[in-house]
Amino acid sequence: MVVKSELKLIKNLQQKKYRNEKGLFVMEGAKAVGELLESGFKAYKLFSTGEELSGSKISQVENISMKELKQLSSLKNPNGVLGVFYKRPSARVDIDGWIVALDGVQDPGNLGTIIRLCDWFGIKTLICSNDTVDCYNSKVLQATMGSIARVNIQYLDLTEFLKASKGPVFGTFMDGENIHTSKLPNKGVLVMGNEGNGISEIIGNLCDYKVGIPQFGEKSTESLNVATATAIFLNEIKRRS
Amino acid sequence: MVVKSELKLIKNLQQKKYRNEKGLFVMEGAKAVGELLESGFKAYKLFSTGEELSGSKISQVENISMKELKQLSSLKNPNGVLGVFYKRPSARVDIDGWIVALDGVQDPGNLGTIIRLCDWFGIKTLICSNDTVDCYNSKVLQATMGSIARVNIQYLDLTEFLKASKGPVFGTFMDGENIHTSKLPNKGVLVMGNEGNGISEIIGNLCDYKVGIPQFGEKSTESLNVATATAIFLNEIKRRS
Which key words tag this protein in UniProt (chains A, B) (predicted)? Predict the structure, then answer.
């Protein structure tokens, strides 16, 4: 059974304000919830309509009806499992190899795709400026396809972080040096900018190198989407490592 | 003034069935409508709240109020201009350089992003299997950011097309040969598959080469999103040309 206070908590957790206040977030789906559990995220509460949670030993699962799950879920078609989790605590960021830093990325689908890309390319740490969209937003979580369990995501003051950073900082710009022919070290920080405005001036001034993806089509073409650009930069970094 | 029959037509054009029947589609926004006009798309009807249509000589623009535009528009915040256009007629497909072919891509955002990528990388022709999402869908048009004006998109029977194709066919697969080290000719067909199922068996059998993007993270990671994978493949093709 779902008690009223739990229903209210889960509804409230759709808002960033409450997620920050409570230090909790909601993940839906047996596979994604199972992956969080396996990667060490601590569950606050788990609900299931009978769906098995793969690969994990859970004692505290509340069995609920589909009708109850529909009340809790933010999905049109909830799929059997909903978990409330503690957010990952802040950790010290070590630059071991390459990391990615985002300067004000706003679209949940873009952030989710970038997390999935970090996972694919073995990028362990993703730094988000404080004004980047919240990675515990349900649309971001859906787009990550479970990758959030395998990438360490930290929100912080990006200016302070880059000032203190020891690895070289590579900012991505429309008119940056051609990434195909740039020299790339075996560690560094790759900074991706906001969808509309790119990298802000203050962050741009902290970049040691400015790199870009050459354009082969007509000059009237818009810039690349930030998630597809991240895909190309990470591929360039990894193909040479 | 907007007459009733026009209002009905524009509402109906939100459905693929009517777009096919009438051979028309709707584009919104001054910039995007201007780009279509400049690239030779023929307008059936243009509406404006007074917004200027950049870089084009239009005689037949119907001036309407914002209230009327809101009735016509599928956007929450319509932005001044709405055009009804004739779809691009079917054309013969020449393989001059590389082209991209899609086998059942379903997500409008993915198709829009892929069109934008083709534009960026100078891919002139995009072939879509008949079961690929309609490129004149409003969500696709929005995601292309105007690139639809510069890429020749043709829907056809992909099996027949590939059978008749003279250029080598490169299919993209999770377990394909590493694209970083594959030999790539200076022309060919790059085939991208459906979001959930990848390339269908029948199309897979028509591929001369199977290529893939190497994974650097943990093996439990999901495949890459089809749009980000297309970004990486096109970058690989172009960086070596």
Answer: Methyltransferase, Transferase
The confidence score (pLDDT) of residue A79 equals 84
Superfamily (CATH H level) for B4-86: Ribosomal protein L30/S12 (3.30.1330.30)
Cα angle B85, B87, B89 (rounded to 5 degrees) comes to 140
Distances (CA, A) of B102 to B116, B129, B189, B212, B223: 14, 6, 10, 16, 17
Are the CB atoms for B154 and B126 separated by under 8 Å? yes
Q: Which of residues 60-119 of A touch B (CB under 8 A)?
A: 109, 113, 116-119
Min mean pLDDT across A68-72, B32-36, B114-118 is at B32-36
* pLDDT tens digits, one per residue of A82-136: 999 999 877 777 777 999 999 999 999 999 999 999 999 999 999 999 999 999 9
pLDDT-derived band at B203, boundaries 50, 70, 90: very high
Arch. (CATH architecture) of A98-239: 3-Layer(aba) Sandwich (3.40)
* Helix B108-120, helix A226-239: angle, nearest 10: 60
Least confident of A11-20, A109-118, A133-142, B86-95: B86-95
CA distance A210 to chain B (A): 18
Q: What pLDDT does B107 receive?
A: 95
State whether ipTM is beyond 0.90.
no
Measure the CA–CA gap between B81 and B108, rounded to whole angstroms.
Answer: 22
> How many CB pairs below 8 A link A and B?
100
What does the pLDDT average to over A128-145? 91
C-alpha–C-alpha distance, residues A52 and A30, integer Å: 7
- Nearest residue in B to A149, CA atom: B221
Q: Where are the domains of chain A?
A: 4-86, 98-239
CA B173 to chain A, closest CA, distance in angstroms equals 15
Say which DSSP state B92 is in: P
> Is the model's pLDDT at B58 over the cut of 80?
no
Mean pLDDT for B82-103 is 87
Long-range contact pairs involving B14-18 (C-beta distance under 8 Å, separation at least 24):
B14/B74, B14/B138, B16/B134, B16/B136, B16/B137
B218 with A150: Cβ contact below 8 A? yes
Q: Do B235 and A236 touch (CB under 8 A)?
A: yes
Q: Which of B172, B112, B135, B158 is nearest to B41 (CA)?
A: B135
Q: Please answer yes or no on whether A150 and B35 come within 8 Å at the CB atom.
A: no
Q: How far apart are CA A41 and CA A136, in angstroms?
A: 13
Distance, CA of B119 to CA of B114 (rounded, Å): 9
* Residues sharing a CB contact under 8 Å with residue A206, sequence separation 6 or more, in sequence order: A159, A162, A163, A169
Tell me if B117 and A218 make a contact (CB, 8 A cut-off). Answer: no
Could B122 and A235 be called an inter-chain contact, meaning their C-beta atoms sit closer than 8 Å? no
